[in-house]
Write a structure and sequence with these properties.
Helix content is 15%, strand content 39%. 26% of the residues are buried. The protein contains two helices and eleven strands. With 156 residues, it is mainly beta. The strands form three sheets. Strands 1-2-3-10-5-8 form a six-stranded antiparallel sheet, covered by helices on one side. The chain has a three-stranded antiparallel sheet with strand order 7-6-9, with no helix packed on it. The protein has a two-stranded antiparallel ribbon with strand order 4-11. It is globular, with a radius of gyration of 15 Å.
Length: 156
């Protein structure tokens, strides 16, 4: 994998990236913040039916989701949007948001964070073997270091 020197393109071929399974959700981190001079991070995440994170806020980053496959419901700042294959949503920094796979099969999201760095949350959570059912206090503490605040439960 090219790390990029700022002088040329950073290329990731299909299947390249860093595998991560924090919270039992398979993701491939395609570009880390360190690869992009801090400007962004970029990953693909597989989401089982009914799954989604707690309501949360990124205090520094905007988060863009492209639905690669599946059907998802997004909640953002009091609004609800149903999105499917090919749809894109941009969540502004500071907006409470979450999503849930409301389809009949696993879905896949392409996620971009600007600026980068939020991927560190997943890397650290996986390295510690954390799971929300038993380790939520530690997850909240780690999240705060990445400018993430949990503000409510996952959607019903």
């Amino acid at each position: 994998m090219d790390k990029g020197s700022g002088e040329g393109a950073i290329v990731r071929r299909a299947g390249e990236g860093t595998s991560n399974h924090a919270f039992d959700l398979p993701r491939t981190i395609i570009m880390q913040s360190g690869d992009t001079g801090g400007s962004m991070s970029h990953w693909i995440e597989s989401v089982p039916v009914g799954a989604g994170p707690p309501m949360h806020v990124h205090h520094r980053e905007q988060e863009m989701f492209r639905i690669l496959s599946g059907q998802f419901r997004f909640w953002c700042a009091g609004e609800v949007q149903d999105l499917s294959d090919g749809d894109t949503v941009l969540i502004p920094a500071g907006a409470p948001h979450t999503f849930k796979n409301v389809g009949t099969g696993d879905g896949q999201l392409l996620i971009t964070m600007t600026p980068g760095g939020a991927e560190g949350f997943f890397i650290e959570a996986e390295s510690r073997g954390l799971h929300p059912a038993r380790d939520m206090a530690e997850i909240v503490e780690i999240a705060s270091r990445y400018n993430v605040e949990f503000v409510g439960p996952p959607p019903a």
